[in-house]
Amino acid sequence: MPSASDQPVVSSPDAYAAAQQAITDLLMATARFSIPPYDYWEPLVIGGLTGKYTLYPIPFDSPCEYRVLCLAASEVTYCSVSKEQGFIAPTNGQNIGGAPSTPSQGRAGVVLAASLGQTAPGPNEWLPADPQTQLLIDLNVASSHAAWVTILFRRRRTSAGVYIEGA
């Protein structure tokens, strides 16, 4: 059996820091300790006939982000997703495929269009939200047809699994 004098001794701050980093690297390489930088909520699908829909409360109880993944439609459809009241879906092809110029914490919302039986992808951009956010979805669909918008939420966290307030 090795004696206490046979054990390695950490004798300097640099050696201690290197040992600490080696332990952290080993822990992070283990699946149990390898925590992704975001916590994702399952995608939410909202929609139906022409109308205004509200998503409230949002899935997280701390600051997060949302992204419009896609708009699926059975007929020509215009859709807006926004945090602002009065931000409505256009009735033509203006401001399609991204965010319009009206800012609200950097962005007013997302506007998409889809045609007959098409799925239109949303922009590859995350928009901020907080626990009190109401997402307003406005669908403008051809009569007797329906459309659905898919929204994904995520929340940032540290490698220790702690949620970062305001990130």
**What characterizes the major β-sheet?**
6 strands, antiparallel
Assign the structural class, choosing from mainly alpha, mainly beta, alpha/beta, alpha+beta, or little secondary structure.
Answer: mainly beta
Q: Over all CA atoms, what is the radius of gyration? A: 24 Å
Task: Tell me the domain tally.
Answer: 1
Q: From the 3D coordinates, which CATH architecture would you assign?
A: Sandwich
What separation lies between the terminal Cα atoms? 51 Å
| Envelope shape | elongated
| Residue share in helix | 10-25%
- Order of SSEs, N→C? HEEEEEEEEEE
CATH class: Mainly Beta
Percent range for β-strand residues: 25-35%
Catalogue the unreliable spans: 93-106
Number of helices: 1
Explain what you see.
There is one protein chain. The protein has one domain (38-156): Jelly Rolls, CATH 2.60.120. Helix content is 10%, strand content 35%. It contains 1 helix and 10 strands. The longest helix has 17 residues, at 13-29.
